[in-house]
Please model this.
Amino acid sequence: MANKFISGNDAFAYGIALSRPHVISAYPITPQTTVVETLSSFIANGTLNSEFIHVESEHSALSAAIGASSVGARAFTATSSQGLLYMAECLTYASGGRYPIVMMNANRSTALPWNIYGDQRDSISLLDHGWIQAYAEDAQEALDLAIMSFYIAEHKKVSTPFMVNLDGFALTHTYEVVDVPEQEKVDEFLPPFETDNKLDLDEPKNLGFSAGPDTNTEFKYHEQQGMLNAYEVISECEQKFKAIFKREYPGLVEDYYASSADFVIVTLGTIAGTVKDAVDTLRSDGKKVGLLRLRYLRPFPNEEIVKLLKDAKAVAVLEKDISFGNEGTVYTNVNSALKKGNVTCPTSNYIGGLGGRDIEKHQIIEIFERITSMQSEIKFIGLKGE
Amino acid sequence: MKVEKVKVSLNTVDDIPYAPFARPGLVTVNSGFRTQRPVCDKEKCNGCHLCYLYCPDGCILKDGKSIKFDLDFCKGCGICKKICNKGAISFEDEK
Model:
C-alpha cells in the first residue's frame, strides 16, 4: 500500500492499470483527458503492459473496445459529455452484445450552450442503454470502483459493460491523498477475464448477429437478468474487496443518517460531501436530517431506497440533471421506487449544479428547511434573481 | 476444421443464449433465391483459391487441391466465376 497525493483522474488511472487491461482505446476530451494521458505514460515507461489504441473519435474508441472484448480481451475506454453522446450508438452494441467493457465517464455538461464543466446530464440521459452506472464521491472510491468494475462487469452472471462516473473537475481534477493498492493484492482480488462470448478458433461461432421478432425479446430478457444479477454480485464483490483491501463499501447506496432521519436528501456524486457537511451542522442543532447517496443508478437500488426512506417525513432529490418537459430523471426513478414500496411521504426535486455551477452548503440547508413545510415541488436552485 | 451443425430448439427463453453468439445451428439455410448455382471444372482448376478469398459469403471451401461450394448459403452472385483466371467456374440453372 502506498499513499499518493493525486487527482481523481490519476487515481482512476492507477485503478485501471492495476487491473491490467489488455486493450485501452480512447480519444481525449476535457475533463477526461488526464486519465488516458496517465495510462499512456504508464505504457510508455513500461510499467503497464497494455495495447493503447489511438483512435480518431469516441465512436471508434468504443468500437475498438468492443472488438477487443469480442476476442476475450479486458478492455477499457474513457470519455465525457459530447464524446459519450458520440459513443451512444456503440453503447447498445456493447451492452446488447454483453461485452463487459469498463468505461470512465467524466461527468460534464452537454452542448449547447457549450460548456466544459461538470453536471450529470451526459450519463443520466443514457441510463436506458444497458450499462451499469456507478457514481464516485471521492478519489479513493474512484480508484476502488475502477478495480471493482471489472470484477462485476466480467462476472459470468452479469456480463454487462460498466460505466464509472466521476464529476468533471470537482473529482477528476481535485487532489486528495489516495491509498494505491499493491499489484499482488489486486491480482488476488481480480480473476482473469474468461468468457465463451468470443471469437474462438477452437470453437467457431457466430457473434453479434441479428435477432428478429422471434427471438429478440428473449435476448433483451437475458440482458435485464444480467443487470439484475449485478445486485448480488456487487455485494459479493464488496465483501471480497473488504477482505483483501480492508476498505468497506456499503452496496448500491450509502446511508448517512438517512434511516434515522425525518428529512432526507437523496443525491449522487461529489455533492454528497457538501450534503454530509450540511447534515452534520443541522444534526448538531438537533435536526433529524440525513443523506441517502446513490452509488449506482443502474441497476437501480429500489429496495435499498424503500428500506432507508420508509419512515421519512419528506424527501428531496438533488441532482445535476433535468429531463426537459418533465423533471430530474433521478427524481423520477426515486419516486418509482417509493411508490412500489408503498412509501407515501412528499418528495421534491431540486435541480442544481448545471454547467458546473457550485451548489453551496447554505443552499442545501435551505432545501432541508423547505421540505419541512413543502408538500412537493420541482425547482431549479440558485436561479439568478430569486 | 470441421464444423458440426447443431440442431437447436428455440422454444423457451433458456434455449436462447445470454448474448447474441451461437455455435452453428441457430442459422438457417439461406439460398432459396438463387437462380443459378456454381460448378467447378476440376480439370481446369489449379487450386489457386482466389475464389475462396473473394467469396463474400464464405461459401467456397478448400477441397484438397481444388474447391467445393457450400450450396446451403451460396447466393449465386458469380464473383467466383468472374475472379477465376482459369475459367474453371461456370453457372448452371437451378432446377
